[in-house]
Design goal:
183 residues, eight-stranded mixed sheet, globular, alpha+beta, Aminopeptidase
């Protein structure tokens, strides 16, 4: 199993089928908060839905086309960070993330993003990492801003979440801009 320890309390690991119940419980614990920003949350109604997601994510990882990584804090599943895809031709990827409410404000996403960006610009040899955030999701937007991403523009009414159409701010980082890049 892929595992990366961030510190004594925090580790990242691939989601596996055995995590289905725990993933569903994490989503359920913050459903109201997550449904405000993420369109897929309303489709996760039980652990079988979580299991199907994990199976698809494991296939994506096996195909070298992305990954879904659990963020575990003090032994508990705190959230997930993803490489949505790996576009080898254009040398780019996109990162997405979420945390349950009880684990926010601990720097978990910032540190997990940093490791995933290192992986994208290192072993994956990509040139561009993108993060898109709802324009009014200030906590989510703080992550790419803190990591030095450039704000590249706003996509207007680009994603339906519940009964709202959300604008997304697009942030980009190029390999030669990343301070941790190995050249």
């Amino acid at each position: 199993m892929f595992t990366n320890r961030i510190d004594d309390d925090t580790e990242l690991h691939l989601l596996e089928e055995r995590h289905s119940d725990e993933l569903f419980a994490a989503i359920e614990s913050s459903r109201e908060h997550l449904e405000r920003w993420l369109p897929w949350v309303s489709n996760v109604r039980n652990a079988d839905d979580s299991r199907r997601y994990i199976i698809g994510a494991l296939q994506q990882f096996a195909d070298g086309n992305g990954m879904a990584i659990a963020i575990r804090y003090q032994g508990k599943l705190a959230g997930v960070i993803n490489l949505h895809f790996v576009d080898r031709y254009s040398e780019r990827t996109s990162i997405g993330y979420w945390l349950t409410e009880g684990f926010q404000g601990k720097g978990l996403i910032t540190r997990a993003c940093s490791l995933l960006i290192d992986h994208a610009f290192g072993p994956l040899e990509l040139n561009r990492v993108e993060i898109r955030c709802a324009s009014d999701n200030t906590r989510s937007r703080a992550i790419p801003e803190r990591l030095g991403f450039k704000e590249e523009g706003t996509l207007r009414q680009t994603e339906r979440v519940g009964d709202r159409l959300l604008d997304h701010v697009v942030y980009g980082m190029l390999a030669d801009e990343w301070p941790n890049a190995v050249n």
